[in-house]
Amino acid sequence: MTEEVQHKPLDCAFESVQDVFALNIDQAVEHLTVDSLDEYYQGAEFLSKIGQGDKLSIAFLKTMPWVGEHFGDGSIKKITDFTYNKICRTPNKPAVEIFLNSFIIVVDHINKDQLDEYLALIEYHLSKTTFSIHGIHDTHPSPSLIALLGNINLLLEQLDFKGIYEWIDYGLRYFKDHPERQQEFFTLTTPDSKAVFQRQRKGLLFSDIERPINLFQRALWKTDYMYAPYSPDFEKLEHFSPYIEDEIIRLPDIYSDLNGVNGCRRYMALVAHLVAHQQFTTKIVADNASPQQRFFAEVFEDARVEYLAIKQYPGLKKLWLSLIPIVNEFDCDNTNQSCLRHRAIMLTRALLDDEHPYKNKVILDYVDKFKTLMGAGESSTSDSLTLGLGYLIKTRGPSDALAKVYFEGTEVTYRDDNRSMWVFIEEFDEDDEIFQHETTPDDEEVETIPPHYYDEWDYAYESYKPDWAAVYERLHTHTDASKIDRILDKHSALVKQLKKVLDLLKPQNKKRVRYQEEGAELDLDIALRSVIDIKNGSQPDTRINIDFEHDSRSVSVLLLLDLSQSLNEVVGSSGQTILELSQEAVSLLAWAVEQLGDNFAIAGFNSDTRQKVMYYHIKGYSESWDDTVKSRLADLKAEFSTRMGAAIRHGAHYLDLQQSDKKLMLILTDGEPADIDIHDPKALIQDTHKAVQEVQQKGMYPYCISLDKRADEYIADIFGSHYSVIDRIESLPKELPQLFLSLTK
Amino acid sequence: MSDFDINQFKIESEPFYEAQSNEAQLYTAAYNARLPVMVKGPTGCGKSRFIEHMAHKLDKPIITVSCNEDITASDLIGRYLLDANGTRWVDGPLTLAARHGAICYLDEIVEARQDTMVVIHSLTDHRRELMLDKKGELVKAHPDFQLVISYNPGYQSLMKDLKQSTKQRFTGMDFDYASAELEASIVAKESGVDADMAANLVKLAQATRNLVGHGLDEGASTRLLNYAGTLIAAGVEVKDACHMALVCPITDDAEVRTTMSGAIDAIFG
Questions:
Q1: CB-based contact (8 Å) between B86 and chain A?
Q2: A260 touches chain B (CB under 8 A)
Q3: Those residues with Cβ within 8 angstroms of residue B204's Cβ, 6 or more apart along the chain or in another chain
Q4: Measured between alpha carbons, how far apart are the two ends of chain B, in Å?
Q5: With an 8 Å Cβ cutoff, are B203 and A312 in contact?
Q6: Which of A216, A242, A326, A518 is the most exposed place for a label (fewest CB within 10 A)?
Q7: Which residues of A touch B87 (CB under 8 A)?
Q8: H or E element, residue A450
């Protein structure tokens, strides 16, 4: 390239653009071919003349040298055209600058030949989200393009194009007509947006593997540490390390394959390393060591605990080695960058790997020292510190302090940050009195319990909306328990009647009883023996039958009460509300179940949009039918709506944990599932139906008692044949316990 | 009945048994006094092997009965059977042992129903006699006769336990998996693998035993370790052998299997 080409002026009247051009032209000339450079000039000139101000050209000038280099000739032209035709000529002009700037990130994540695919993706999103109210023109800008571009780094890094399309489609499906929600979704801040994103991610989610990992640490070390996964991507913790503190292991929520090691094995490597620290590391004082000294002490300490762990479980060596990167010994240039990490990773590899490729004398020396120490038997964390200090002294150089650090390939992902190895005793580290936390009263603490998220079924798309409904658990408020006792007194005649039925109620399992004079079947063995006795002339045994009897009763019951607003309606001429009648019915039922000794819980639910489904514990499985429970039942209130599916899923979560042969979920409701944020009456009916199916698949038996006179129109769609409709609501107190008894007979 | 040869119940070649502590001495003392013995311990830890070993050592015949729910008193005592000439009395295993002087070993006795086992009572106290009421005979126990029962306290449900009146007729011996070194040497001898391999197999077994109550009802037994060792000695790939002998038999839970394969990797690489 000649001097003239380098300095060919840009035909543009904006001074600011000329300034940026002057700063970037050298870069452009260095990175671009002649053809691309032409496109670069033409694009920048064109964009400054389309009446959009100077911002476009500035962003263009800054980013395109990299784009042209990465995607090759023709790419800059393509982007210029796309910018003009697809963005500038639509109402989405405010997004242009961000769109152009995003290419700095995009070039890092997609291949040379994927530019068209990327542009198609943006176009797809634009065409779907830019809409018009009148006429044929797109009159409103896309509410979410800027949000989408803001997350483009995360999207391209974690998902493939197919995954991104899935995620976009999901957002479009549910928030197309709701600009604010749409924006929330595409900024990746809502739980459902994150959940859909998670599903598309590449790798193994920790939650899918938690139990095997837990069993793994228990099997090999008899330890029982808890886990708290963090999201490196959402929380912007790219180089954040796992650690263990207060018996809790913090680890990434997702692992993809690395060096041929799958996510499951990577989690095992991590847990094994952390447990090794817990076994073999003793805390040492950190105050006297500099960060660099600590850094190398940690390298030796990691190697030391792993050496000891490998002695116990030799196979761990292979696993760990496959996760420790090998760097080229001469890759780091110590004249212009800090080689601390480079030296550390070589040392790390050499300490563990007998066939390491390194020839550096100091490394070999210290590997020998380390091996001698370990071979001698006794070793401690302070030995690691000594080795670390010595190694640093031998190897340190002026470049260690440089800000530019050789980083690539020096991370050992399964290792923790070794915070458990150090103890700081500096004065200012002690508790700061100024920032004393105010203690919150119990009630407020309840408010802070985070919600459980449940999927909801979308019948139109035949798919789940992940983490859609937020269920908050609360203990129900309480009042005077004597109200319930009065109810039981009022129904004393019914109580007596129920008692008779209860006595008759036989437990369920069948058990064989032999030696019966009368019974269901002939016991051939014994009959034959009796025949022999007769032949033999001795007295035969006449108890030659076999019978079956019921064995112990193993039932868990959850009674789920609909506490929506409609329960406040007064029934007929009785003057009682449905809620009061339900209270009576539930009291009688609870009393009856208590008599039987079944495992029994009562919970109530209502909902105020999907963001707030309330689930009230009234009686827990382990609680007995005492005044505490009665006082909660006495205080029932009816408000809001009926999002039944989420409540059923949450109730099933607890019922599933009960250890009984039979699990019964009774749902008492006065109307169809509905909520104020759902306009399609079928949506929640279908979702509840799906929830009922899920519950059945888990081996529970859902059964609905409906007080809605027109329930016949929909109830069979939800519960199949598992329902009763009680037409005379006044008779509920009598019918509910009887219904329960007949169900469990 | 005089033509009956009780010696067929003798154990001919010595069963391999590695003593954990002084159990042989204790058992011999109990036998010398003809005290009934109960041995308790988890599956496959060597209870039956120990009894056979002792029977061989003492040179006494041993009659083993594996108990089950349907076993009746007459299955133990004996009964009349039909034959061409009418009926004929046949001694049950307990009567045989008592009459001819053998050790009667009732394996997994809690599997039998509690009231069945009451028939052994008269043989286990000072009377040492057995009434055959159908036959109208009172069998006085042979001087060499001894009763031994075994059971596994962990595995059976709460419903299955011995009656106190039965329990209190026995002296008891607790068995457990041998210590790691001892168990490794047992596995090495029994299956023919080298000491290192045996030690690693024992580590794996201990890993499974740590999971008892967390997805496993019982850990891998010494018997299964021997199976694994035998397979390895026969040239089977280590991981395959472990899976076949130590993972597959004890669990169907996919997650526990994932854990076990992780543990196998951690131990064998």
A1: yes
A2: no
A3: B220, B242, B246, B263, B264, B267
A4: 62
A5: yes
A6: A518
A7: 532, 535-536
A8: none
Which pair of tokens denotes residue A355? 């066939």
Q: Which of these three, A169, A200, A231, is where a domain ends?
A: A200
Chain A's closest residue to B216, CA to CA, is A215
Q: Closest approach of chain A CAs to the CA of B151, in angstroms? A: 23
Which strands form B171-174's sheet, in the order they lie side by side?
B62-66, B103-107, B146-151, B37-40, B171-174
Q: What are phi and psi of A345, to 5 degrees?
A: -70, -35
Q: What tokens were used for A50? A: 């389309």
Residues A176 and A250 reside in one and the same domain: no
Residue pair B173/B39 in contact by the 8 Å Cβ criterion? yes
- Whether residue B32 lies within 8 A of chain A, CB to CB, comes out as no
**What token pair was written down for B265?**
């990797």
Torsion angle defined by CA atoms of residues A60, A63, A68 and A69, in that order, rounded to the nearest 10 degrees: 160
Which residues of chain B make contact with A216, given a CB cutoff of 8 A? 259, 262-263
- Partner-chain residue, chosen from A213, A218, A316, that has the shortest CB–CB distance to B211: A218
Q: Is residue A706 part of a domain?
A: yes
Q: CB-based contacts of B57: which residues, under 8 Å, 6+ apart?
A: B14, B24, B28
Residues of A (285-304) whose Cβ lies below 8 Å from B: none
**Whether residue A234 sits in one domain with residue A154:** no
**pLDDT tens by residue, A53-65:** 888 888 888 888 8
Domain total in chain A:
4
A319 contacts B266? CB cut-off 8 A: yes
Using a pLDDT cut of 90, give the percent of chain A over it.
Answer: 9
Give one DSSP letter per residue of B59-93, joined into a string. T--EEEEE--TT--HHHHHEEEEEETTEEEEEE-H
Q: Is A224 on the interface with B (CB under 8 A)?
A: no
Six-digit token string for A398: 């002026």
Confidence of residue A3 (pLDDT cuts 50, 70, 90): very low
Strand partners, A248: A226, A245
pTM of the complete model: 0.65
A107 and A23 within one domain: yes
Whose tokens are 């669990």? That residue is B251
Specify whether A169 is located in the same domain as A255: no
Measure A628 CA to nearest chain B CA, in Å.
Answer: 33
Contact A397, A334 (CB under 8 A): yes
Same domain, A539 and A646: no
Give, in words, the CATH class of B6-174. alpha beta
Q: What is the pLDDT of residues A202-231, one digit of tens each?
A: 778 888 888 899 899 999 998 888 888 887
SS3 A107: helix
ipTM of this predicted complex?
A: 0.79
Query: Do residue B74 and residue A529 have CB atoms under 8 angstroms apart?
Result: yes
Domain residue limits at A520: 510-550
Where is A607: in which H helix or E strand? strand A599-607
A216 and B262 in contact by Cβ < 8 A? yes
Residue B157: list chain A partners with CB under 8 A. Answer: none
Q: What is the pLDDT of residue A138?
A: 57
So what's the pLDDT on residue A108?
83
Q: Residue B7, Cα to own-chain centre: how many angstroms?
A: 21
CB contact, 8 Å: B84 with chain A? no
Query: In the structure, what pLDDT confidence band is assigned to residue A2 with cuts at 50, 70 and 90?
Result: very low
Q: Does residue A567 sit in the same domain as residue A665?
A: yes
Closest Cα in chain B, distance from residue A62 (Å): 50
